[in-house]
Write a structure and sequence with these properties.
The chain is mainly beta. The chain has one helix and nine strands; from the N terminus they run H-E-E-E-E-E-E-E-E-E.
Length: about 140
């Protein structure tokens, strides 16, 4: 019988506090007439962040059918990671305040990344919060 995942298990970062290595990043942006197609850099996640939960809270940002996509882009020179729609795609933020929970699979980042919101079909104005829960795995 083979030992499955033994090497990975032995190299996991040990428990290091009351709540282990879990971290929460809370990013806030006050949008003021951000145009369609613009990218909002919400904040940065460290290299080896293993993201397992992302939630976006928004005000009623527009009355014209505005949408926002939530993703990431590399923060490193020469980096290659990028997905403008990894966590959410075209979330409607026009009609009322919204809470959007990502259904994306957990993802381990091998580079530092910026969490980004891409404004879709119409200009947005109001408050955007993005809460990212991740496990920090320092190799």
């Amino acid at each position: 019988m083979a030992d499955q995942n033994k090497t990975v298990s032995e190299h996991m970062q040990p428990y290091s506090g009351s709540f282990g290595n879990a971290s929460v990043a809370i990013f806030k942006y006050e949008a003021a007439a951000v145009a369609s197609g613009d990218v909002i850099y919400m904040g940065k996640l460290p290299k080896y962040a293993y993201v397992h939960n992302v939630v976006m809270y928004t005000d009623d940002l527009s009355s014209a059918g505005a949408t926002i996509s939530l993703g990431y882009i590399t923060a490193e020179v020469g980096g290659s990671l990028s997905s403008a729609t990894y966590w959410t795609t075209t979330t409607d933020v026009a009609s009322s305040a919204a809470r959007t929970v990502s259904t994306a699979e957990p993802k381990l980042f091998s580079e530092e990344v910026h969490v980004i919101c891409t404004v879709g079909t119409a200009e947005v104005t109001g408050t955007i919060y993005v809460i990212v829960e991740f496990l920090y795995e320092n190799d």
